[in-house]
Design goal:
single chain, alpha+beta, 2 domains
Length: 190
Amino acid sequence: MVVLCVLASVVHVLLVFLHVAPANTVSKRYGSQINAWVFPFFEQNWRLFAPDPESVNRQILARTARTDSDGSFEVSPWSDLTAVDGSAVERHVFPSHTAQNMLRRAWAGYADSHGGTDTARTERAVMMRTYLTNIAADRLAAQKGDTFDFVQLRVVTRPVAAPGSEAGTRPPKPSENRLLPWWKVTRHAE
């Protein structure tokens, strides 16, 4: 058992090293296998010498739908997933890094891989859509007591007001209000 743990640790460190290291023969040849291991759970996003602070606030809302036995489509009201995350972080003395960043990083990965469209053109884009869908579905299933078949997300992006500006007294107007398509999920229930 110890040998297996040591072997798994060595393989993990090697794959992450190949991911963050400059392009080389091995990382070019085995790039898809390395990325399959690293994304989305072990992604490295270091900006040690050039920090890139958030310049916008994103509010991610989700709603569910289910098809009843008579064929009707029942849609739930919007649920603010970002507010739930913020509330969970504020109530813990030592909030986990995952609780603070999972939804935000999932959205960033989705937006990066899809661009302005909601059409997945690469395997990574499909993976990021599935990851975002699963996070939303799991969180909505934990909040609601009923079952659902579909999830839809809406992302409202607002610029962060400059410090000391008058805009800080009232919420800025959304610069983007993106409504994503309905995504089929495995039937979820609490």
